[in-house]
Amino acid sequence: MECIELENVVKKFGNVTALDGLSFSIPCGGKYALIGPNGAGKSTTLKILAGLLTPDLGNVKIKGMSPTSKEVKKILGYLPEDAMPYRVLTVLENLEYIASLRGLPNPRQRALEMIYLLNLKEYMYTEAGKLSRGNLQKLSIAMTLLHNPEIILLDEPLNYLDIPTQELVISILKNFVTSTLLVSTHIMSIATRLATNAIIINHGRVIWSGTIEELRKMGNENEPIESIVARILTKGPQI
Ligand SMILES: Nc1ncnc2c1ncn2[C@@H]1O[C@H](COP(=O)(O)OP(=O)(O)O)[C@@H](O)[C@H]1O
Ligand SMILES: [Mg+2]
Fold it and tell me: Which residues form a coiled coil (predicted)?
């Protein structure tokens, strides 16, 4: 079964065409990276899948349902590009609040579990507005994952994180074995660590899609995957 489906999606902002007939689908449980240069349309795609923007044209379905439906909101975890928790609430309060809104049985306990999982104990009584950018990102990731979402959409999730924290977040995400994951990034090493499949987009269209293995095989021996992607982006997939 397909858990994420986009068909001929068009989204314009004034005279800028952000998505220009974008189509792809992701089977349930698939781990996919959405790759593309700045301005390619990655964030717009994720916002549409999260139900925050509606497309001008085309069809979008999450498990066969509209992304704006309540059913989808329950099973979706979305990390925005520049996620901003409630600034005047502490780390603990932010997590407890979201856990309550999500209707989890024991919000305080779940908040504490996420604090331990993401190594935020030292900051649990710090207001979000006073956190460093990296710790704010960790809190945002905790808020995205605390209800064990079936569908996970992450927009550049490892931004601002130091290397050990990147490794921590990668290992946490690896535990979401049955969830469907779509992670946008322009950094190939992140794509290869988190995903088995890649969808490369540019100018709001799919340029190439396939497994990361297939992508590697398109290169010469020992050619870095970044260089293969750069070639696809400039010359097209046929080379
Ligand atoms: N709210 C907006 N208003 C106007 N233009 C926008 C808006 N959001 C995105 N765009 C434009 O749409 C295109 C795609 O943007 P975006 O989806 O953010 O790309 P990416 O995340 O791949 O860098 C860009 O040209 C961007 O400037
Ligand atoms: Mg973006």
Answer: none
Ligand 1 centroid from CA 120, angstroms: 32
Beta strands in the chain (DSSP E): 2-13, 16-27, 31-35, 57-62, 76-79, 151-155, 180-185, 197-202, 205-211
83 near 143, Cβ under 8 Å? yes
What are 192's two structure tokens?
A: 């290869």
CB 30 within 8 A of CB 69: no
| pTM, rounded to two decimals | 0.96
pLDDT truncated to tens, each residue of the chain (239 aa)? Answer: 999 999 999 999 999 999 999 999 999 999 999 999 999 999 999 999 999 999 999 999 999 999 999 999 999 999 999 899 999 999 999 999 999 999 999 999 999 999 999 999 999 999 999 999 999 999 999 999 999 999 999 999 999 999 999 999 999 999 999 999 999 998 898 899 999 999 999 999 999 999 999 999 999 888 999 999 999 998 876 65
Q: Which residues line ligand 1 (CB under 6 A)?
A: 13, 16, 18, 36, 38-44
Class in CATH terms, 2-83+151-235: alpha beta
CA of 84 to the centre of ligand 1 (A): 19
- SS3 letters for 127-156? EHHHCCHHHHHHHHHHHHHCCCCCEEEEEC
> How many CB atoms are closer than 10 A to CB 206?
18
d(CA 126, ligand 1 centre) in Å: 33
* H/E segment holding residue 70: helix 70-75
C-alpha 122/C-alpha 27 separation (Å) is: 39
